[in-house]
Amino acid sequence: MRADAGWLLCLAGAAALVAADGELPDAVRAYHEGRYATARALLRDAARDGSERAQIGIGWLHQQGLGGDRDPQEALRWYRRAAESGSPEAQYQVGLMHELGIGVEADPWEAETWYGRAIEQGYCPGELAGPEQVLEFGR
Question: Is pLDDT at 69 greater than 90 in this prediction?
Fold first, then answer.
């Protein structure tokens, strides 16, 4: 188990919301204003329409319990949907959740499969911003 896994989950979710800024400005604005239930509703609509960024963002809100109940299984469902559409960030998230047993029974083999898919696309989670930078996003 990784010592920095919690931060990686947090960073990936926050980064998805920041990256979605141009695609989902109302949802990102609601998130930054602390109106998490509104952000969740806006992201849900976009996620259902197939937006990978929205799927990752709503997954993160479910995982953190922002704007509603904390629900790791629902978070995994949204991450997986984006991952199956080809999002390397989501593929990494699905791998990490399987590695750590978040929302699912821990399964290192399944984790490795998802990590491999992300790596094949050149995704390197070490390229994520540090925690101090995430806190400044959108401010």
Answer: yes
